[in-house]
Amino acid sequence: MVDLRLAMGVDQDFALDIQDGPFLDSPEDLERDVEKEHVLLRLNYAALEVARRQIQIASAGWWPSVTAGVSYSRQDPEFYKVYSRFDELFNLSFWINFSYPIFEGFTTRTAVESAELQAERVKKEGEKTRKNLQASMARTRTEVMRLRDIQDIEKDNIQSAQRSLFLAQEQYKLGRGTSLEVRDAQLAVTRAKLNFIQTRYDLQISLAAYHRYRGDLMKIYLHGDTP
After folding, report:
1. In this structure, are residues 62 and 108 in contact, taking their beta carbons and an 8 Å threshold?
2. Residue of 85 and 68 predicted with greater confidence
3. Which residue in 10, 68, 88, 118 is a FRET match for 135, CA 20 to 30 A apart?
4. Distance between CA atoms of 130 and 39, rounded to whole angstroms?
């Protein structure tokens, strides 16, 4: 760890703790589909619901309308009688009106067709969004699996470099090696560790991207859940 701290440019007393992130347990976990509650899909669901309501509103133009009312009035030559004896000298009328939009059929049809086209457009946008998310998931899934394989190789490289360092140190103790060979072996160990950390970092970035495309990024990384 001392060589690693030197390579990173931090003090030797700096606490360096490398931890794994929320790795998926198995390749099968990477085969899950996009979450139904993905924020992009939820936005599309909301837009589709609005479009369907617009169809209903436009279709209301086909419906007949009915209005009704009641009218009460009083009048008298003598002013004081207007505000007395309310059960006398009054007019009470009821009315009801029924209308049907005979001459607005073309306008209504146009409005309905426009609303239906908008709903179909929103639906296709949702399908396109899902396909794009699935394609992005497939791409990042491949990258995750590739980086996992590289990470295993980097682990083996660290062990191999450490064995080479041990041999170089033993050869130096026996007078059969030079200090330069020891330093080269130490540098190889440091480089192997740095490569491993870089691979692990890239893997975490790819995993985060995978969860973002799948729609469970917040659940995985904020609540600490594991798939």
Report:
1. yes
2. 68
3. 118
4. 11
Q: So what's the pLDDT on residue 226? A: 44
pTM, rounded to two decimals: 0.62
Residue 42: predicted pLDDT: 87
Euclidean distance between CA atoms 3 and 15, whole angstroms: 14
Closest CA to 161 of 139, 127, 185: 185
Please name each of the domains of the chain with its CATH number.
Answer: 2-60+103-222 (1.20.1600.10), 65-99 (no CATH)
Structure-model confidence comparison of residues 218 and 178, the more confident one: 178
pLDDT higher than 50, residue 227: no
Asked whether the beta carbons of 149 and 200 are under 8 A apart, the reply is no
∠ CA 11-17-18, nearest 5°, is 120
State how beta strands 90-99 and 65-74 pair: antiparallel
